[in-house]
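Journal club prep — side note

Before the paper discussion, L.F. wants everyone to see what a predicted structure for a comparable chain looks like in token form. Sequence:
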Amino acid sequence: MESPKDEKPQIESLEAFQKAAIENRKPEDGEGLLFEDIYELKKPFEALLDQMRSKIDSGAYTLLVGDDVSGRIPTLIFREFLRQMYEGTSQKVPEALFFSGHHGETDASFLNQNAEEVAHGIEKRYSGKGDILFITEAIQTGRTLTQFENAFAKLPIKHDVMTIGITGGREKPLTVEEYFKMRNDLQKKFGTTIYSACNGAPNIAYSPDSHPYEGVFNQSKSLHSTVSKNHRANPDHKELFQAVVEESRKDVKLMATMLAEHYRKGA
């Protein structure tokens, strides 16, 4: 009798998700959805929601913590998805908090103080029940995740992590083995569950003009992001910039509706 072969873990590349989304997109798919950078999140999100079904169905998450800036759109999509799923039920839609990710910050004194302030901000808004979900668009070095984990370590609250992808960098794709090693190492290091959909970072992580979809940008050594339309947009382009932000919020709702429909079919 032939012995069964060991099955190696597999993970879809972001490129595979993008290709499938574009090639299989029908005219009615995402009708009214304007931005491709947001539409490309559809397939990764579907994979994430399937992984997280038991947590979603039980209403486990009572607070969402978003990594600003690039994690803002995924956080808004997930919260709107929960709102639609929980409508007419006893489940409450979790509040969403946003804190600057400070990618690349190396000032140890600042990072320690920032962790204290993030922990304090979370503690003030936490209801005392349920779990927290930290949401980001991509994990690369794990440095930003470490900053938030330093804050969570100060709180006796269970939390999970949701990321669209795990990546070695825009020009450095991970092998399948490297992908799972990085995820597993981070899970062991922080004692948390990391839900991830694909190998790679979505385009929204590299949005031009300081993240036009989000409408905010990070200020150096600031706990929260700043509204872009008031501080960064060219005065001649403010109306257009605001229109992009408003349209992206419509896309968030449309994306959440598509995800809710997909999710219900899998129930």
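L.F.'s comment for the group: The chain has a mean pLDDT of 79. Keep this in mind when we get to the figures.
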